[in-house]
Amino acid sequence: MKELGTKTALLIIDVQCDLFEKSTPVYQGDLVLKNINTLVDRAHAAGAPVFYVQHSTKTTLIEGSIGWQLHPALKPRKTDHFIRKHRGNAFEDTRLKSDLDALRVSRIIVVGLVTDGCVQATCKGAHALSYDVTLVQDAHSTNSAGSGQIIDKWNTKLSRGIVRLQATADVDFGAADSK
Prior knowledge:
Blueprint: E1 8-13, H1 29-46, E2 50-55, E3 81-85, H2 96-102, E4 107-113, H3 115-128, E5 132-141, H4 147-158, E6 164-166
Parallel strand pairs: 1-2, 1-4, 2-3, 4-5, 5-6
């Protein structure tokens, strides 16, 4: 018997205004935003749930502040899901897992900021919870010196048994590819 509900969800990690205002700009920020929006459109067209995750602490990305808001290039729908988090791993101390489970999601597509922080932590957290994790290699970034090398390093490291790497053009929300 076929399981009801969708199997794949898109997780957009911390694409928030203040991260684009740092002295070192988000590496390939315009391309990353364009690719994320392409994936959001594709997810919506396939009926896959879209989750916007927003980070906050007491000193940075202060919840409710202008800098905490999603980047204005993103255009979430009222039917999308919103998760607030205070730790790097979007699954830690949030309702993300229960929301995904309620939707019968087994595969997640991860995009967002920052590669060497919350993106890698969420990928590892999802893998530890037995989700099938795809990291979109051209839809995540960081704003550190040497960003290109940092992104390459994490793509390589995470692709060794934690995530499947795919380019935006290759992501399919209709079916989970075999690993």
